[in-house]
Amino acid sequence: MATANSKTQPATRWKFVAGILILAAGLLWAEEAKRKTFTAQAEAQFQHAQARFRADTANPTNAWQFARAAFDFAEFSTTDSERAALAGQGIAACRQLIARDPKSAAAHYYLAMNLGQLARTEFLGALKLVKEMERAFRTAAELDPRFDYAGPERNLGLLYRDAPGWPASIGNKRTAHYYSEQAARLSPDYPANHLNLVESYLQWNEREAAKRELKALDALWPVARTNLTGERWEPSWNDWAIRRTVARQKIDATAPPR
């Protein structure tokens, strides 16, 4: 016999499903709105840096900050041609600076970063670019290992983690381990260093290590939130928050049954 409850359950379930779909659509819309805002901000920062660089191309700070802005703007490119064009400008600015000042850690660092953007648009040529990225990041690490919150070590860790292994390319888990952990030691208060370690440990099935790094990330999060502020940091915080949530879900999903 049908009860009042059994009659209403299907309708309730559909209302629940509809609510989830509406929520998902709202989240997608919110992320798209954020992306448009971040893209506009990155474009404005690029144009400002470009104007400063063109006004005084001999100024080393203008050069590497322009290269940084080119990399940041390329992050929001929707086509390979646009990404490659922006990366090319950043690469050219860094090569010019390196020719004048071979000991500029910033120039080597942002050369590598923009080479990474260019590699995203390549297929056969990407492996050659990876080798050049490795050399540039290593040079930056030798000159100033703490630049950009231990950026050279942080990115070497990702490069060795994600590149194909020997003999195709330079991928190496042990080396990735070393550089990723070194970045966290050199700049322990920077969220991305711990977040990269959480994700790497999960990729390597090292759950307890991932839990440890997530705990460290949670502890530093509120302080970092008060230190890394302003328009330039908004895309990073949005990215980090999403990745932290996904990492936490993966750790919870792999928890052994009690």
Model description:
This protein is mostly helical. It is built from ten helices and no strands. The protein folds into two domains: 107 residues, Tetratricopeptide repeat domain (Serine Threonine Protein Phosphatase 5, Tetratricopeptide repeat, Alpha Horseshoe), CATH 1.25.40; 114 residues, Alpha Horseshoe (Serine Threonine Protein Phosphatase 5, Tetratricopeptide repeat), CATH 1.25.40. α1 runs antiparallel to α2, α2 runs antiparallel to α3 and α9 packs antiparallel against α10. The longest helix is centred in the N-terminal third of the chain and has 52 residues.
H-E string = HHHHHHHHHH
Oligomer: single chain
**Number of spatially distinct domains:** 2
What is the number of strand segments?
0
CATH class of the largest domain: Mainly Alpha
Tell me, briefly, the overall form: globular
Main sheet overview? none
Tell me the CATH topology of the largest domain.
Serine Threonine Protein Phosphatase 5, Tetratricopeptide repeat
What distance separates the N and C termini?
39 Å
Structural class: mainly alpha
List keywords for this structure.
disordered N terminus, mainly alpha, Serine Threonine Protein Phosphatase 5, Tetratricopeptide repeat, 2 domains, single chain, 10 helices
